[in-house]
Each structure stands twice: as structure tokens, then as C-alpha cells.
Amino acid sequence: MNSSPAVPPDPVLAAFGAAGAPVVLPGGKDGTWRVGDLVVKPVEHLAETLWRAEVLTALPDSAQFRIARPVQAADGAWTARNWEACQLVAGRPDLSRPDDALRAGIAFHKAIADLPRPEFLDLRADPWSIGDRVAWEELPVDGCPAAMSLLRPLTGARRPVDLMPQVVHGDLIGNVLFAEGLPPAVIDWAPYWRPASWASAVAVVDALCWFGASTELAVRWSHLPAWGQMLIRALIYRIATDEALLGPGGWTLDRVAVYRPVVDLAIAYADLDH
Q1: Distance CA 2, CA 19 (A)
Q2: Is residue 1, in this structure, part of any structural domain at all?
Q3: The domain spanning residue 39 has which CATH number?
Q4: Rg (the chain; Cα; Å)
Q5: Does residue 213 belong to any structural domain of this protein?
Q6: Cα gap 95→152, rounded to integer Å
Q7: Is residue 184 part of a domain?
Q8: What's the pLDDT tens digit per position in 38-90?
Q9: Of 81, 53, 46, whose CA–CA distance to 67 is shortest?
Q10: 207-233 pLDDT tens trace
Q11: Is residue 15 scored above 90 in pLDDT?
């Protein structure tokens, strides 16, 4: 039985000046809460939280995207009792608009393109970080037979790329909010140090696998650099992350079947890369 997410305690709400009853929000690993006009959630990686708060606070407003500005506690810190807070931004995800989510992500990546590589990336050891390192040949490919049936053809098609890395958002597709009359809002920033076109490829792979997007989505973004290789690495990232999260028991026939046609599509694009 799954346990209920921890409710932010009253001292945390008081520290951030949050007023109202906490309401759990969908997504956010079931631990994100709306309290009045704030969103609060537990800190997962303190160094990452502090870095992200400083970067987002300094980031200028843009006509192409919005962000959820971090909120300081009463003592000026970015956290209170291992919780963090940000402003609530208007909007909802719309998984039928992957192209608009990608455009917002590309604009966001241009705005943060000059950031140096964060040191905390080397300290993360969660399943997503493991999947990322596997995708970029920083860890060996390994997994149960079902996972390897998907990973082997991908690693066989993987080739070196010569693209500049930068800080990117590695989980865009469900973390762009849309509100009428406002630019899209980019939230829940998951930072990685990879080429910007890889972050777009992850969004396309997610849309194809899980949100009913047509293969035409991949065609529309095939002008991005090293597109086939970015799709290859995006799929290795997601599959290796699933293996780390779920283990062998999580690989149902249905789950393998979801990935299979997208794997074939990525390999076809990789064959076209020069």
C-alpha cells in the first residue's frame, strides 16, 4: 500500500508565509502542495535546490516563457526544515500541445545557455541520473532481458556526437503549463548537462511513448542537431531509468510494446544522421 505524501508542517508554512489549507498537486512525485498562492515541496537535493533558486531568481522575464519564481523563507533562506517554495503560476499541462512545449523549452534553454556546469550533478545518484549516465556512456548498459531487448539495438546505433553541452531541462513535456493570454510556464526544472537538442528529444520520446503523439512530431523537429543520435540517447535514458526505478518486475509486455516502435523510429533517424 502506498503511503500518503507528507503534508507540509505548520512551521514550514509559517516560514514561507503560506496561508491556507495545503492541497496536494498532481505529479511532483506526489509530494508537491499548493498553499494559497505558493507551491511547497520537500527538498530532494539541497545543493540543486539552492543553485536552482539563485538561477531562477536572477533570470530575466521573457515574452516566450514564464517561470515559477522561488520564494525565500522569513530568515532569507531558500529552504525551511528541508522544504522549498515557489510562486504558484497560472496554467495547466496540455499534453496535446507538445510542439508548444518544445518551443517554450527551446526559449528557456537559450536564456540559460551561458550557465556553467553545476557541481551537484556529480553527486546525484537517483534513477534518472543513472539513466542519463547510461545514455551518455558514463555507465555501462545493463538490465533484465526485457530492458536489454530494447537497449541493445539502441546502443548498437549509438555513435559519437560533437555538440556543446549546456544546462537543460530534462523533463519538459509534462512540465509546461498553458494559460490563455500568457506565455507557457516552464516548471519543475530537472537540470542536466547535455546538448539542448537532447532535451527536445526526451520531450518528443515521452510524447510518442506515453501521450499519443503522432510520429509526425519527430519529423517536425528533425532539423535539430544530430536528431537521430539525440533520439537514441533520449530512449536509452528513459529505458535505463525505468530499469533502475522498476527492476525486472516492471517490464510488462505492454511496457516493452510502448517503447518498441519508438526505438525503431529512432534507429531509422540515426541511420540518416551524417
Answers
A1: 28
A2: no
A3: 3.30.200
A4: 19
A5: yes
A6: 30
A7: yes
A8: 999 999 999 999 999 999 999 999 999 999 999 999 999 999 999 999 999 99
A9: 53
A10: 999 999 999 999 999 999 999 999 999
A11: yes
